[in-house]
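Researcher: Structure prediction, please.
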Amino acid sequence: MDPLPSPVPPPAASPVEWPGLDGADERRFSLFVIGDVGIEVRATLPDVRFVDVVADRLAYAPARAMVAGTAVNLARCATRYFRSVGVLGKIGDDDHTRTIRRELRRLGADDHLCVEPGTPNGVSVMLRDRPNGDGPAGGRGVRLLVVHDDPPCRRLTVPEVRAAAAAIEGCDVLVTDGYSLLSPVSRAALHTAAGIARDAGTRVAFDVVPHDVDARLAADDVLPMLDLADLVISEAPTVARLLGRPVPCGGQEVRDLLPCLDRAVPGRPTWLLRFGPTSLERVLVHRRGRPPVEYPTGYRDGVERVGFGDRLAAAELYRWLSGN
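Model: Predicted structure follows.
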């Protein structure tokens, strides 16, 4: 782990100003991420709106297949900030396996992947249609994400996490996310990882995804993980729905949500609550007993949305570990 933070970040209003969204001048700290790892096919359809598709349709558009998933997506950005990045996830055993491991090497991330023999890797398809200029999504189109319904990552086990205990104990921050809560097997593994981290003095960060987690899990399946976290990243509407509260539409309504968070989560995590027209434009930082702080993220019309959240999270994690 790094010694006491140095240099101390300047009193900037946003991580956009320091350390910035394109990486840090000095790579410091060690990050270990547990999450999804697989193959994703991405395409933006410039001449198609989903609402207009009423029959079979052939569309030509830029499309690419890439190694992705929550763990890889964050690691891809985190390697621009952190001295070392480790990735733990469960993957399949097929022609994609070698490609996945080669991509981690290319990124410079440490491979702690567990292979499940005889199973295919998870594959997802992300399509975004043509922007129509109407509504909060008008400037970026609507996203359709189709995910393998039984990916190997849902079967990450407690023993596999314990095998990576030394790496978890030796890092500055363990980063996890809600997709691992969707299965009782990987949920138990995630709780074990957080326990290992806390016992070793490693900080724990948790990303509340998927954004409709409230429709997939009861609050009692999510809140215990939030109580183990030192830092929680969430879109404000997601955590509001999870707690059965009205969805906040503006900054004051997000601030009104803070007492509910404090009652629901007995610990004292730092909350990074994203909000705005697309739930990505602004962040309200909250910690029990301290005045909230608000900052812009730099996201606006014309900024590529794919990957922006991971860039922002990497900058926020680096800034947080630096003592600001």
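Model: The chain has ten helices and 15 strands.
Researcher: Thanks, that helps.
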